[in-house]
Amino acid sequence: MLTIGCHLSSAKGYEAMAKEAEKIKANTFQFFTRNPRGGKAKAIDLKDIEKFLSKASDLEIYKILAHAPYTLNPCSPDEKVREFAYQIMTDDLERMEYIPGNFYNFHPGSHVKQGVEKGIDLIGEMLNKVLRPEQSTTVLLETMAGKGSEIGRNFEELREILDRVELQEKVGVCLDTCHVFDGGYDIVNDLDGVLNKFDQVIGLSRLKTIHLNDSIFGLGSRKDRHARIGEGKIGREGIVRIINHPALRNLPFYLETPNDLEGYGKEISFLREAWIEP
Ligand code: FE
Ligand code: FE
Ligand code: ZN
């Protein structure tokens, strides 16, 4: 079965997200660990978690994806900003242990005139401070569109970050289809070529999740503007090839398209129909 879901609001807790997922026939979902701008997280609600875990097992929801606040910058030139990123990531990963065995995705950050190499060093240092041998969560670096001084705009940069990590089995990659396309990887006309490149540079075994988005702007635009499935430059056919590609078809897919719950439901039912049973 295709594993697909979308981004859901975590404001009402985990059980509420599982119920929403059920409504739209999603068997996974993504959520922000706290306000996406990085505010305080809600206290852990053990009852909610217990209900969620039982509901998730009934619905066969697995491999949910937490997304770090996007304002975190683990490679900021400002030490206070880096310290803030460290605090939030540490706290988020402690919380994730209440729902063990899932994924935590973050944007590598922006180096802001320090240069890519310095930025990569700082991200590597951050990961080595944050990761614990006993954690059950896999931390994922997201492929970025390359706006401004964003790190992770190509596979080589992500590989360099991964190379600096001591606890190798705790890290992986989340590929965002809008971002890689905006970053200049032609997943529309040469999906095989792009995935071969990913395999050579990073290794497909490191690829754990896919953010499935169409892109408003064209190949190499570096704009990072998500479109609904079929309403962007990747297009319906391009997206259908992605979910059916042998290297990707069994990974979990998460929609981050501009939609309400009903819109997500429609995209999910379209994609379920377009996914070819092996
Ligand atoms: Fe993201
Ligand atoms: Fe994304
Ligand atoms: Zn994006």
UniProtKB/TrEMBL annotation:
UniProt catalytic activity: Endonucleolytic cleavage to 5'-phosphooligonucleotide end-products
Residues noted as binding Zn(2+) 3 in the record, renumbered to the chain: 179, 224, 226
Class of the enzyme per the UniProt entry, highest EC level: hydrolase
Amino-acid positions noted as binding Zn(2+) 1 in the UniProt annotation, renumbered to this chain: 67, 107, 142
Cofactor note: Binds 3 Zn(2+) ions.
GO biological process: one example: base-excision repair
Keyword Nuclease attached: yes
KW DNA repair (keyword) present: yes
InterPro entries to which the protein is assigned, alphabetical: AP_endonuc_2 (IPR001719), AP_endonuc_F2_Zn_BS (IPR018246), Xyl_isomerase-like_sf (IPR036237), Xyl_isomerase-like_TIM-brl (IPR013022)
Cofactor: Zn(2+)
This protein's UniProt keywords: DNA damage, DNA repair, Endonuclease, Hydrolase, Metal-binding, Nuclease, Zinc
Pfam families in UniProt: AP_endonuc_2
Gene3D superfamilies: Divalent-metal-dependent TIM barrel enzymes
Enzyme Commission code: 3.1.21.2
Residues where Zn(2+) 2 binds: 142, 176, 211, 256
The Xylose isomerase-like TIM barrel domain, residue ranges: 19-273
SUPFAM superfamilies: Xylose isomerase-like
UniProt record similarity statement: Belongs to the AP endonuclease 2 family.
HAMAP family referenced in this protein's UniProt entry, alphabetically: Nfo
Summary of the function given for this chain in its UniProt record: Endonuclease IV plays a role in DNA repair. It cleaves phosphodiester bonds at apurinic or apyrimidinic (AP) sites, generating a 3'-hydroxyl group and a 5'-terminal sugar phosphate.
Protein name: Probable endonuclease 4
